[in-house]
Amino acid sequence: MYQFGMDYFLGSFGPIAMCMRMTLVITLSSFVLAFVFSIILALLLMSKNKVIQSVLKVWISLFRGTPLLCQLFLFCYGILPYIPGIKNCPLEVQATICMALSFSAYMAETIRGAILSVDAGQMEACITTGMTTIQAYRYVVLPQAFRLAIPALMNNFIECFKGSSLCSMVGVTDMMLKAKMIANKTYRFIEVYLAVLILYWLLNMLFSYGQKIIEHKLSAKYYGGSHK
């Protein structure tokens, strides 16, 4: 009869936690890149050029309508290795680029919706005061849009964090791959995967707590501290 090995369970935390840095680096890097890409995509989606809109809608649909794991295999083994300047990059960088492209498709719709939520009259007011369209977006529209998009963007960040575990499938040595290596060596799959699950869970709760702090500070800033 199988008996849970507490020694294997507790002993798995240290080696897996040693790979936490890679998991966090991929998560943060891919999210920041995705955020930049999403702003560009959102602004282009709002352009009046029908060709650009059609191409971007297909592009976004591709990433939103296919599994992240398939995208990682395709980009890390079938596309990025043949692109000059990227083909010699470490696998971790290629996986980060793929994740950034994937999550930017989700975040672009979030940013676009937030921008449309800002009163159109503010853009008109900026133009009448002599500001350019770029200045109006930079100093007036986008700051308000980002505040509105914070809850959704933080959810995207958490999904990006959880999705980073799939990078282990293409050979990135993160927490998940380390857990798999330990489990294959010890044959203690329950103990090892329970340990890595708890680590992901604890990090996720930490990020969720950080999300609440950010939302509270933004609410206090815009509502004079009276918003609860």
Walk me through what this model shows.
The chain is an all-alpha fold. The protein is built from 9 helices and no strands. Helix 2 packs antiparallel against helix 7. It is globular and about 75 Å long. The N and C termini lie far apart (53 Å). The mean pLDDT is 88.
Give the helices and strands, then pairings.
Elements: H1 6-17, H2 20-45, H3 50-64, H4 68-79, H5 91-117, H6 120-128, H7 133-163, H8 175-186, H9 189-223
Salient structural properties:
0% strand; 228 residues; mainly alpha
Point out poorly predicted stretches: none
Largest sheet: none
Task: Please trace the helix and strand order, writing H or E for each element.
Answer: HHHHHHHHH
Strand content: under 5%
| Radius of gyration from CA coordinates | 21 Å
Report the strand count.
0
Helix fraction by DSSP (H/I, runs of at least 4): over 70%
Would you summarize the structure shown here?
The protein is mainly alpha-helical and 228 residues long.
